[in-house]
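Supplementary Text 2. Reproducibility record for the structural model of the 143-residue chain.

All settings were left at their defaults, and a single model was retained for analysis rather than an ensemble. We include the record here because the model underlies the residue-level annotations in Supplementary Table 4.
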Amino acid sequence: MSAIKAGIYIKSTADLNGSFFEHTTIFVVEHNNAGSLGFVTNKHFGKSLHELIEFNQAKPFPLMDGGPVDREHLFVLHKRPDLIEGGEQVANGLYLGGNMEQVIDSINTQSIAKEDLQLFIGYCGWDAGELEEELKEGSWTLG
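Retained model, structure tokens:
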């Protein structure tokens, strides 16, 4: 059975130096027969939420560089299903997605703490078996 599952962290090794993934920690939010999906949790995007045209009415909130795939969309990971409806529980009380209007409202009213919400531009994705192979090759470590 694979050691990879939703709710774990993986860390890049020196094998990935010189790539987008150099010194990254990724939180895996989905792992199944179709593949894996995760977000880089330790790389800032370089802009704040309010600097994006479609969210220019929002208060400043940090954006994370979630990964090289689908950099046109904003992805949400949060711990507050009481404030943000529609998220899917990933693991350990963490939810992926949800009502974006409620996300923005929670930020603007400061009813959500920065520790309870992360916003990502882009994500990391792997086809079926690809992440397991990269783990065996030594590109990633669990943890």
